[in-house]
């Protein structure tokens, strides 16, 4: 029915209050502007301009066209900028799922470096359990995940890294704090702190106890590594995680990590996961590569 160029001329006339002034801004002859708007009026069978004194103003129909043109131009410019950002690896969003015991390693080993290269990329970080992460990757809610624990055989692209040993984490005053290692059997003499069953770490703990003909009977259960560490730091029991997960309080001398003497504990792995059908932006691909390199090196 009409062309964008014609509506663009109309918009500029309404903006400038006259055909000659609009033509100067557009860099064309005033007769070209008049002719294009006249063609537009004939096509729509509606008047689009009217004179008021020395000025030309838009009619109601003209105003509606001009407003739609302006809104469309803004949307198009925003889209062009977003595409340009993606081309130059600046903009966009990355959704990452992280196991609670891997947060410190992720921030220190990956996010610092990533933020230098892509300061304008929005990174959505969600800490979750193994099952929550697998669900989000499969459903497309997340770009990638970093998980710890037994994972089964999901149809996902995966890189696995050694991340053990799993340790008994206690306060420095705890009776086992000075040991070089501790067996599963020796743990039953003390109050234990469990994570919920959705955590890969807890699945490892249950498997180790079962292999020794024992059941894991905790005194406390929580759904955050930080809570488990807080309970251990208060001297209320033994929590379980890798030394990487408790790195900060261990460094400060608030906690001690005693490796578990069990094959499962020493061979525990973390997994970098993505859906092979999901297409990465350049920024997401860069983060995936940083994650792979950081955890491979550790």
UniProtKB/TrEMBL annotation:
Gene3D superfamilies (UniProt xref): 3.40.190.290, Winged helix-like DNA-binding domain superfamily/Winged helix DNA-binding domain
Keywords tagged on the record: DNA-binding, Transcription, Transcription regulation
Residue ranges of every copy of the HTH lysR-type domain listed in the record: 9-59
InterPro entries: HTH-type_LysR_regulators, LysR_HTH_N, LysR_subst-bd, WH-like_DNA-bd_sf, WH_DNA-bd_sf
PANTHER family: HTH-TYPE TRANSCRIPTIONAL REGULATOR YBHD, NITROGEN ASSIMILATION TRANSCRIPTIONAL ACTIVATOR-RELATED
Similarity field: Belongs to the LysR transcriptional regulatory family.
Name of this chain's protein: LysR family transcriptional regulator
Species for this entry: Kosakonia pseudosacchari
Upper lineage: Bacteria, Pseudomonadati, Pseudomonadota, Gammaproteobacteria, Enterobacterales
């Amino acid at each position: 029915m009409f062309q964008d160029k014609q509506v663009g001329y109309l918009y500029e006339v309404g903006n400038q209050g006259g055909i000659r002034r609009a033509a100067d801004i557009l860099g064309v002859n005033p007769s070209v502007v008049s002719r294009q708007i006249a063609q537009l009026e004939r096509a729509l069978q509606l008047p689009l301009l009217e004179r008021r004194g020395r000025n030309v103003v838009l009619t109601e129909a003209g105003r509606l066209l001009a407003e739609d043109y302006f809104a469309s131009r803004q949307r198009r410019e925003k889209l062009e900028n977003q595409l340009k950002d993606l081309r130059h690896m600046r903009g966009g969003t990355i959704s990452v799922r992280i196991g609670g015991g891997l947060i410190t390693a992720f921030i220190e080993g990956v996010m610092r470096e990533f933020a230098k290269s892509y300061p304008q990329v929005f990174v959505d970080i969600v800490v979750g359990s193994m099952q929550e992460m697998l669900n989000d990757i499969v459903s497309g809610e997340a770009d990638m995940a970093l998980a710890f624990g037994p994972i089964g055989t999901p149809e996902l692209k995966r890189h696995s890294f050694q991340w053990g040993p799993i340790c008994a984490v206690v306060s420095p005053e705890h009776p086992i704090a000075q040991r070089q290692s501790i067996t599963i059997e020796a743990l039953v003499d003390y109050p234990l702190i469990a994570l919920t069953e959705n955590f890969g770490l807890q699945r490892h703990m249950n498997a180790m106890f079962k292999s020794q003909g024992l059941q894991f009977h905790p005194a406390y259960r929580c759904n955050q590594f930080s809570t488990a560490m807080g309970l251990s730091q208060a001297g209320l029991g033994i929590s379980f995680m890798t030394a990487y997960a408790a790195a900060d309080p261990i460094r400060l001398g608030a906690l001690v990590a005693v490796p578990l003497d069990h094959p499962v504990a020493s061979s525990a792995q973390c997994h970098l996961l993505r859906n092979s059908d999901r297409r990465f932006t350049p920024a997401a691909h860069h983060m995936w590569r940083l994650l792979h390199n950081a955890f491979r090196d550790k």
